[in-house]
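[job 0412] stage=complex_fold ligand=pyridoxal-5'-phosphate status=START
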Amino acid sequence: MNDPSSRLREIPQVSALLEHPRLAVLLEGRRRSWLQRVIQDALSDLRRELLEDGGTVRKRDALVDQVVARVEDSYRELTNPAWTRVLNGTGVVVHTNLGRANLAPDAVAAMAAVAGHNTDLEYDLAAGARGHRGRQVEAKAALLAGAEDALVINNNAAAVWLAVRFTAGGGRVVISRGEIVAIGGSFRMNEILAEAGCELVEVGTTNRTSLADYAAELDVPGTAVIKVHRSNFSVEGFTEDVSLADLAQLCSERGRPLVYDAGSGALFPMAELGLPAGELTLDQDVACGPDLVTCSGDKLLGGCQAGIILGRADLIAGLRKHPMRRAFRVDKTTLAALDAVLSAYLRAVDRPPVPTLEQLGADLESLQDRAEKLLAGLAPLAPAGWRGEVVPGVSSVGGGSFSTAAIESRLVLWQAEKTDLEDVHRRLRTGDPALVGRMNNDGLAVDVRTLGDDELPLVIAAFSAAWTQAARSA
Ligand SMILES: *Cc1c(COP(=O)(O)O)cnc(C)c1O
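[job 0412] stage=complex_fold status=DONE, emitting structure tokens
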């Protein structure tokens, strides 16, 4: 009676479902194949569930209702934006999974302006002929970094690939064993270098690489060198490293090109925001003398997704003409956003109004104040058994930057039954806007460093909705 095939026997047919009144409405005026596919997907999900759950045989009418509801849900999802706004209560400032840097309103407006209208992106209005407005953005980046010239492409992964491909020309690339890094899930330096058609020449060891290790590999013509910022880990103990300046001097003496992957690419001194000293800014990297420096646009720089290559004018000119440059080209909205952010740096007397820098630089007093305001708004809504308080906590930079930096912050910490905390956190994450906090042994925490004052009402509304839903389902 309860064998798998009998459980599947009552599954409705696609053809019958297409005629169901609630689905026929969706079909009207639209392509039949779309709805057919959505129905088929819903049916295969149902088939798998029926086989797995081994429960009682359900009546056909109940199954039809279930499939129709799922198809309606899928259709709603398909016709709405693919993502949800997230209130970032994690305290991770450059959160790659949450979209990295947020842009200031003027940068967002600049993006919107070019998105909805034609612009002189590649047109010289005075001459009435082809031009290169993008060059102006690159000139701003070059000026800020003190580089001869700059090139903007899709992201730093592409920037590293292109810079190495061009300078090594399919030859040898020397890299320290301590710098063959993996960033995120899909960027491995050794794989990028191999895909750039280069022969990887590893020197030194994981913890120690000396100038002599590099020097021993520079005799062969067609050899380039790459140095990589250890963005997301640190090496401690018995270590030795070659500074960028020393390596640049060696490479210049030996006539070998040096590419430096700076990773984050800070334009503002992070120590002034309270982060550990010792990290170089992009202009300091460039001043050390490597031939090319690459970085991301949306990490510590605080802009949009982009890869920026800075350095020698002759090399940048060569990169600009490289056939693969076209494949890594950015769109006009990226150029507009980056232009606005770089202009903000150029206009600023002190810290530019870039959200990433503002979040990193927020002082404890303002964080305490924000956390108290948030708690005051939430406390009257909290269910029985929930205790909230403002506690010290630690934010992190994220985005593979300052891996060991722990920035003191303020959290609103909630304690309750563990299952209740988890249930409410799940409801917060699936709300709209969603709220992502931090769950640990102490409870459910919301780090206010990564939230704006203007977002507090949204956070309160999100908790209110989650608590109400939880009470209803209890
Ligand atoms: C983040 C990072 C990259 C990759 O940059 P994307 O802009 O994400 O492509 C490459 N190298 C280093 C050292 C990084 O930190």
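The first helix runs from residue 4 to 8.
[job 0412] exit 0
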